[in-house]
C-alpha cells in the first residue's frame, strides 16, 4: 500500500507557513488583460471554513465533477483541495471541446452526484430537445462565474427536478458568496456571504451603503485580512493598491444587498453602461431578453453614441424556431419586451443577431471582445 512505502531519497520536505506564497492564478480577462493573483497557503484552508463545509458537505462516497479548465481557481478548489480534504472521488473528462450532448450522456452514464458548471452550460443543456430528464445519480448542481437567469433556474428545476445552487467568487478570493442547501433561493440573487468573509456593498470611498443600493461588492480587509484572500497582483503593486478601498478590497463587481443579506450581481464595473447619465447593468437587460422565447443567449454592452455617450447594444443568439423571422420586426418586439419588464431607458437601442457569442474557456461571455468590436478596435 502507498502508506507503507518509504519517501524518495531525492525528495526533501519544506516546511511552509500559512502566509507563504503557494500559487498564482491568472484572472479570466473578461474585461481586460489577465492579472496574476498570488495566493498564500491560506487558500488551502478554505475547505475548512464554515461556509465551504456548509455549501457542499462532501462525503467519501461522493463523486464530484467540476466542468472548469484546470487553470482556474474554481478547479483548484472544487477538483483538488475540497475533494482531497473530504476524501471523495473526482471525476475527470478530457473533453477536446465543449459538447452539450457529451455532458448530458456523461451525467446519465456515470454516478456523478456533485456537478459544477457556469450558468451558460445549464442553459445550453436546457436548449436540447427534451421536456424532462432525470440524471440517475445527480443530486447537487452548482454554478457560478455568470448570473443565473431566473428563467433558467425555473426550467432546470421543472425539467430535472434539481435545484441550481449559485456561488460567487473570483481568482483573487475563492468562494465568498453562496446559496446553501436548504437556504431560500431568491431569483436574481447569488446568496449570502460565506464566513470568514465579511462582504458588503460599498461606495467608491469604502463606506457601506444602505440595503438595495447599487455599489461595489467589497470584502473587509481591515483590521484583519482574510487568510484565503489573494496576497497581491504579482509584479504590479499599483493595481494591488488600486483595489484597496478604505477598509475593503473592491472586487470590481457591482451589486446590491437586500435586507436579508442576499447579494445581487449587476455586472463588472467595466461593464456598466453610462447612457445619458443613467448607469445600466448588462445583467438586468440580458435577463429580460432571455425571457423572450426568441432569445437563446444574449450579451449587452455599451456602444458609443455622439449624443448619449453610450447606448445599450444587445448581441443576440436566436433559438432555432425564430431563425427565419423578420429581423427588423423581431428587433422591435424585443425592444418593447425589455421596456415592459425593466425600465424604458434600459432597452437596447441597437440589436445585432449573431450565431454565437465570444466566451472564455470556462464558458463566460467575453464582453470585452464585443466592446472592442463596437469601438473599432477589432
Describe the structure.
- This protein is α/β, with parallel strands linked by helices and 378 residues long.
- The chain contains 9 helices and 20 strands.
- It has 2 domains: 13-268, ANL, N-terminal domain (Rossmann fold, 3-Layer(aba) Sandwich), CATH 3.40.50; 272-374, ANL, C-terminal domain (GMP Synthetase, Chain A, domain 3, 2-Layer Sandwich).
- It has helices at 50-56, 73-86, 100-109, 119-126, 150-160, 237-242, 282-290, 327-341, 367-374; strands spanning 21-26, 36-40, 63-66, 89-90, 114-116, 140-143, 164-170, 174-178, 192-193, 199-202, 215-220, 232-233, 244-245, 248-257, 263-268, 273-275, 278-280, 295-305, 309-318, 350-353.
- A 7-stranded mixed sheet has the order 4-3-5-6-7-8-9. Strands 10, 11, 13, 14 and 15 form a 5-stranded antiparallel sheet that branches. The chain has a 3-stranded antiparallel sheet with strand order 1-2-12.
- Strand 13 (244-245) and strand 14 (248-257) form a beta hairpin.
- Helix 4 (119-126) packs across helix 5.
- It is globular.
- 40% of the residues are buried.
- Residues 1-5 have low confidence and may be disordered.
Amino acid at each position: 500500500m502507498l502508506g507503507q512505502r518509504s519517501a524518495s531519497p531525492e525528495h526533501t520536505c519544506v516546511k511552509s507557513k500559512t502566509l507563504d506564497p503557494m500559487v498564482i492564478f491568472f484572472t479570466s480577462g473578461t474585461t481586460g488583460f489577465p492579472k496574476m493573483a498570488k495566493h498564500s497557503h491560506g487558500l488551502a484552508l478554505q475547505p475548512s471554513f464554515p461556509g465551504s463545509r456548509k455549501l457542499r458537505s462532501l462525503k467519501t462516497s461522493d463523486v464530484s465533477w467540476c466542468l472548469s479548465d484546470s487553470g482556474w481557481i474554481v478547479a483548484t478548489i472544487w477538483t483538488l483541495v475540497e475533494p482531497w480534504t473530504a476524501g471523495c472521488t473526482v471525476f475527470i473528462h478530457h473533453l477536446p471541446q465543449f459538447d452539450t450532448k457529451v455532458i448530458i450522456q456523461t451525467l446519465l452514464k456515470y454516478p456523478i452526484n456533485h456537478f459544477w458548471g457556469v450558468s451558460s452550460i445549464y442553459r445550453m443543456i436546457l436548449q436540447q430537445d427534451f421536456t424532462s430528464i432525470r440524471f440517475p445519480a445527480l443530486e447537487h448542481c452548482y454554478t457560478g462565474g455568470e448570473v443565473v437567469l431566473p428563467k433558467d433556474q425555473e426550467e432546470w428545476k421543472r425539467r430535472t427536478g434539481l435545484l441550481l445552487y449559485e456561488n460567487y467568487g473570483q481568482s483573487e478570493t475563492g468562494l465568498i458568496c453562496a446559496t446553501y442547501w436548504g437556504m431560500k433561493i431568491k431569483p436574481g440573487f447569488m446568496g449570502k456571504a460565506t464566513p470568514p468573509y465579511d462582504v458588503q456593498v460599498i461606495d467608491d470611498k469604502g463606506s457601506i451603503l444602505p440595503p438595495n443600493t447599487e455599489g461595489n461588492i467589497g470584502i473587509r480587509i481591515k483590521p484583519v485580512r482574510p487568510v484565503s484572500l489573494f496576497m497581491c497582483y504579482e509584479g504590479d503593486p499599483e493595481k494591488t493598491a488600486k483595489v484597496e478601498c478604505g477598509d475593503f478590497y473592491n472586487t470590481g463587481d457591482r451589486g446590491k444587498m437586500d435586507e436579508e443579506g442576499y447579494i445581487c450581481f449587476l455586472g463588472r464595473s467595466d461593464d456598466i453602461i453610462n447612457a445619458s447619465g443613467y448607469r445600466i447593468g448588462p445583467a438586468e437587460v440580458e435577463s429580460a431578453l432571455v425571457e423572450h422565447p426568441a432569445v437563446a443567449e444574449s450579451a449587452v454592452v455599451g456602444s458609443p453614441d455622439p449624443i448619449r455617450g453610450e447606448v445599450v447594444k444587445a448581441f443576440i443568439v436566436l433559438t432555432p424556431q425564430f431563425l427565419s423571422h423578420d429581423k427588423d420586426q423581431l428587433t422591435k418586439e424585443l425592444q418593447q419586451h425589455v421596456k415592459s419588464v425593466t425600465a424604458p431607458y434600459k432597452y437596447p437601442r441597437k440589436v445585432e443577431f449573431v450565431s454565437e457569442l465570444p466566451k472564455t474557456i470556462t464558458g463566460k461571455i467575453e464582453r470585452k471582445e464585443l466592446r472592442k468590436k463596437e469601438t473599432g478596435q477589432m
